[in-house]
From TrEMBL:
Short name of one Pfam family: FemAB_like
Protein name: GNAT family N-acetyltransferase
InterPro entries, per database record: Acyl_CoA_acyltransferase, FemAB-like
Transmembrane segments: none
Amino acid sequence: MQARVLHSLDQLPADTWNTLAGRDNPFLRYEFLAALEHSGCTTPATGWTPHHLLIESGHAGQRQVLAAVPLYLKNNSYGEYVFDWAWADAYARSGLAYYPKLVAAVPFSPVTGARILTRVPGDTAQIEEAAIAASLALAKELSLSSLHWLFTPPAQTERLEGHGLLRRVGYQFHWHNQDYTDFDHFLAGFSSRKRKKIRHERRSVADAGVTLEVCGGAQMTPALWDVFYDFYHLTIRKHGAIPYLTRAFFHELGRSMPDNIVMIFAHHQSRPVAAALNLRGTDTLYGRYWGGEDGYSGLHFETCYYRAIDYCIQHGLRRFEAGAQGEHKLARGFLPVATYSAHWLSHPQFYQAVQDYLRRERHGVESYMTELNEHSPFKRSC
C-alpha cells in the first residue's frame, strides 16, 4: 500500500470518493467537501489547505484507492470546534510555532463520523493502520507541530490511540427517537413542569402568527438560498462571530446535494423571518446553520429544534444532532453524548503536558455529563 496526497478533490473522481464515504453521513460526501473548496471556504487564505490522504494499492496506471482521509493543513484553529487555542498560546510563549498543523476533519462541522473512509470488503484494520501511519509520516515530513483527528468514532479513536495519539473527550446534546408517534408522544415522557414549558414555547410562536414550512432541496430556488444566507450572515455578524461559509457554498450545496437538504422557514404575514438548514443522512438529521430576526419569542427553539424533531418523527429518523454545545438543549429532550478526538504533538515536553491536561479534562467532562443526566427532563423510572 502507498499513500498519496491530494491538494484538491478535483484530482479524484467523485464516484471514487463517494464509494469510500458511503451515504450515511452527508458531511463526508464528495459534494459537501468539494463545495467548500469550490466556494473558497477551504483555501490557504481561510487557513484550510486541502491535503487529502489516499491509501492505494497497485502501481501507477492501475491504482486502486483503498481509503481516504479528509485532511487539511491549518494555519489557525477556526472552525474546528475542538479548542486548542490555549495550546497554541503555550507554544507561542515558549517561542515555538504551533501553526501550521495537520487536521483530519470536516471543516466547520462538529459532526462525528469516520475519518478513515474505506469500503473494502472484510477486515479493514490493516488499511486503517496504514492511513494513520501515513498521516503521522506526513506531519513529520512537513515538520509540523502536531496532528489532530477531530470528531472520530470510538473504534477509530481507539486505533489512533494505538499509534500514540492522545484521546480527548468532549460532549454534545443529541435527540434520540424512541419510536415516537408524534411530538405529544415525545413530550409524554417529560416531567409535567418541563412538558408545560415546551408547550408554552411552541404556543407563543403560533400565537405571534408565525407559521413554519419545511422545504426539501428540490424546492429551494436560488432566491430562497439567498434569503437563507442573508439570515445566516446577519445572525453570525450579530454575535460577533466569523461567517465561515460563503453564499456560493450554499448555492453549490443546493445544486449538488438536494436530497440531503431539509430547510425550515418561519414566516410572519407571508414574510420569511427565520430559517434553519439541516442535512439529512440515512438515519440522522443534522442541524447546522440558522438565522432569524429578533422579536419573536421562542422562534429559535421552534425553528431549530421542535420542528426538526417533528420531521424526524414523521420520517422515522433515529437521531437528531443539533450542533455543538448548548446546555439549553437538555431541557428540550437532547441528552449528553460523548465526542472524541485524537492528538499528537511532536514536541516531547508539550506532548506530556497535553497528555496530563487531557487526563484531568476527561475526568471533568465525564463528571459533568453524569451531572447533566441527573437533570434530564424525562420522568425518572421507579
